[in-house]
Amino acid sequence: MTARRKDPEHGHPQDGRDRGNDENTGKSGNGGNGGTQARFGHTRLPAEQEQALRRGVKFEWITLAFLTVSTGMVYLVLGNSQAMKAAWIEDLLSFLPPIAFLVATRIIRRRPSERHPYGYHRAVGVAHLVAAVALTVMGGYLIVDSGLGLITGEHPTIGGIELFGQTFWLGWLMIIAMLLTAAPPVYLGRVKMKLAKALHDKVLYADADMNKADWMTALAAAVGVAGIGIGWWWADAVAALVISVSILRDGIKNLRGAVAGLMDARATTYDGSAPDPLFHSIDDYLQDLHWVSAARSRVRDEGHVFHVESFIVPAAGNLPSLQVLEEARGTCVGMDWKIQDMVIIPVAELPAEFLPGITSTGGER
After folding, report:
1. Average pLDDT, whole number, for the chain?
2. Is 359 helix (H, G, I), strand (E, B) or coil?
3. How does pLDDT run across 201-235, given as a tens digit for each residue?
4. Rounded mean pLDDT of 40-50?
5. Are the beta carbons of 125 and 256 closer than 8 angstroms?
6. How far apart are CA 302 and CA 297, in angstroms?
7. Average pLDDT estimate for 177-205
8. Burial group, residue 233, by CB count within 10 angstroms (0-12, 13-18, 19+)
9. Helix residue ranges per DSSP H, 77-121
């Protein structure tokens, strides 16, 4: 069953998610961004998530500003180095996750409509997929390009540049540029990783993961350039290959996560490392109710929030009242802000066709 009531503000049915959050946070609905209600679809964000969202948006704009400066600086000293070219392209690709996050966070604020009854939460998954495909394709291209340079014995050259009346080896500027761009992404990645956990945001997590790996890219490019300087022509191509493999690894990892999410795979934690513990919390609570004989749930991860379907077998075959069902649902919704949409379905026996694995393990695990 679903518990819904009329939303006096918008004149359409409102579920327990809004009510639960208001009660839990004590907010009147105006504590968000500059007076705008911070929400994901129906869900009004608790204070912690609201602050995390504001910080996430701020740090993504900071990331875009940093990338604008760093890509411009690297472009100016690009030269003939394959490693520098790979690092520059990776910097360009690094624009995708922040842009995807900023666009998705605006789209998912929209309330569900008649055309989109489940809301717009999948915008996060679509953005994640676009970024992952771009990373994968470009990583594969750079591996082929760098590998051909190594196989054919291409000897890159780095000339000089005249500054302030003096002629310098351009490689020094390349190395300085790489070292200057190595440190900021480490800090940005650490901050965004914490925010991704608070928001259960996989795009933000993917961006943080890429930021953390950027210092390796910068260091590899600097080593490649230094190798050219001491006569190791192959060092540049090897460094480019290392960077390309890093890009491809990020792409494949994110592609698998994005596709799994869009195909309604089992809901996992924000980093995809384990099933989300809310599975156990919901089933354990329902199972412990005196009027429930058996209960199992399946949970769909919509991007930030979960849609939950819980099947219960009433004890002794006695159907509970609507009030009892609504109380059970309200308690489950109140367990975590991510539980946005939940239905409780009384059944004569747990349906194996909807709960894979139940016959062998006793639940969808």
Report:
1. 80
2. helix
3. 888 888 887 777 777 777 778 888 888 888 888 88
4. 84
5. no
6. 16
7. 88
8. middle
9. 82-93, 96-107
- Beta-carbon contacts of residue 57 (< 8 Å; ≥ 6 apart): 33, 102, 105
Pairing of strands 13-15, 160-163: unpaired
Q: Which single residue is written with the structure tokens 């129906």? A: 42
Q: Tokens for 196?
A: 């991704």
pTM of the entire predicted model: 0.75
> Over 60: is that where the pLDDT of 57 sits?
yes
Instruction: Tokens for 218, please give them.
Output: 């910068």
Helical packing angle, 322-333 and 278-288, nearest 10°: 150
**Spatial CA neighbour of 309 closest among 267, 260, 277, 272:** 267
Residue 312 pLDDT grade (very low, low, confident, very high; cuts 50, 70, 90): very high
Question: Do 300 and 278 meet the contact criterion of CB atoms below 8 Å apart?
Answer: no
The CB-side HSE value for 82 (13 A sphere, CA atoms) comes to 28
SS3 content of the chain, % helix, strand, coil (to 5): 60, 15, 30
Q: Which residues contact 364 (CB under 8 A, 6 or more apart)?
A: 266, 279, 296, 297, 298, 355, 356, 357, 358
% of the chain with per-residue pLDDT over 90: 22
- How much is the pLDDT for 358? 67
In terms of pLDDT, which residue wins out, 12 or 232? 232
d(CA 153, CA 252): 29
Angle, helices 96-107 vs 47-76, to 10°: value is 150
Q: Please tell me the distance from the alpha carbon of residue 334 to that of residue 65, in angstroms, as a whole number.
A: 39
Strand ranges, E, within 18-153:
39-40, 43-44
In whole angstroms, what is the distance from residue 159 CA to residue 101 CA? 40
Between CA 221 and CA 85 the distance in angstroms is 9
> Could you tell me the two tokens for 226?
């230094």
Nearest in space to 55 (alpha carbons), one of 194, 206, 202, 203: 194
Tokens 């058996």, residue located? 294
Q: How far apart are CA 346 and CA 309, in angstroms?
A: 11
What is the number of helices (H) and of strands (E) in the chain? 12, 9
Q: Comparing 3-7, 136-140, 183-187, 316-320, which segment has the lowest mean pLDDT? A: 3-7
**What is the amino acid identity at position 122?**
R
pLDDT band at 36 (very low <50, low <70, confident <90, very high): low
